[in-house]
Write a structure and sequence with these properties.
The protein is an alpha/beta fold. It has two domains: 3-31 and 111-234, Rossmann fold (3-Layer(aba) Sandwich); 33-109. Helices cover 48% and strands 12% of the residues. The longest helix has 16 residues, at 53-68. It is elongated and about 55 Å long. The two termini are 18 Å apart.
């Protein structure tokens, strides 16, 4: 599965790629979808109301987005329990949100690599800046777990904003000392990564791990299943 969709601006895609901005969870390593569903299953089992794990997970993610995009920045380790708390109240679950989120916190520090990551890193000879929403300490631990090093790392905790905020991409460009036209951002989220990069004037490669359909109005330079496919295109 590979699709190439070039944005209409000729100057936008003509510049040579001199560096990469790289999302981490869902792109370099596996995302926490299974952990979220496992926590949701635990909540559903303890709930007074009859709900399914999928319903709990969906409600939690809606609350999470509202908390993360709301006024005042909270790190992810606060966003998760804060957003889970109203879901627990709604379904009648007396569990402690912080304790329920503990497996997620542990996962962030030790996620498995996605298929194709090692091949990509061994083949691509470009400066790379990680651009991640996860808290700094958890990202450092996850990178150390797999002995990964990059030229620069930008986290939301450092910037005080989450993708698709332009501040995240601006900080990454500064870290690599490159212009928007000289880099490509690679990520798995249509909103945080693809729309965020496009708004910042940056080309984007979409890691479409969920086999979703991209909106027709969203320019995507490459659509790939994993990073190894991107290495074959730009390596």
């Amino acid at each position: 599965m590979l699709r190439r969709v070039l944005p209409p601006q000729p100057d936008y895609t003509a510049a040579v790629i001199k560096g990469l901005l790289l999302d981490f969870y869902g792109t370099v390593v596996e995302d926490d979808d299974a952990i979220i569903l496992a926590i949701a299953a635990r909540v559903a089992a303890l709930a007074a109301k009859r709900v399914t794990p999928d319903q709990v997970a969906a409600a939690w993610m809606r609350e999470f987005e509202a908390v993360a995009s709301g006024p005042g920045f909270l790190p992810l380790r606060e966003c998760s329990p804060v957003s889970l708390a109203p879901v627990l109240a709604e379904v009648g679950c007396a569990g402690d949100p912080l304790a329920l989120c503990a497996p997620q916190f542990a996962y962030w520090r030790s996620p498995p690599l996605r298929a194709g990551t090692r091949e990509f890193l061994s083949r691509v000879n470009l400066p790379i800046c990680i651009v991640s929403d996860v808290d700094s300490d958890d990202l450092v631990a996850a990178m150390a777990r797999h002995d990964l090093t990059f030229d620069a790392v930008v986290t939301s905790e450092e910037v005080g904003a989450y993708k698709p905020s332009p501040a995240m991409f601006a900080r990454a460009l500064d870290a690599l000392s490159l212009d928007a036209s000289e880099v490509m951002h690679v990520g798995d989220s249509l909103n945080a990564d693809m729309r965020g990069a496009h708004a910042a004037g940056i080309r984007a490669a979409w890691v479409n791990r969920r086999r979703l359909h991209a909106p027709d109005d969203l320019p995507i330079t490459y659509e790939i299943a994993n990073l190894a496919e991107l290495a074959a295109l730009i390596g």
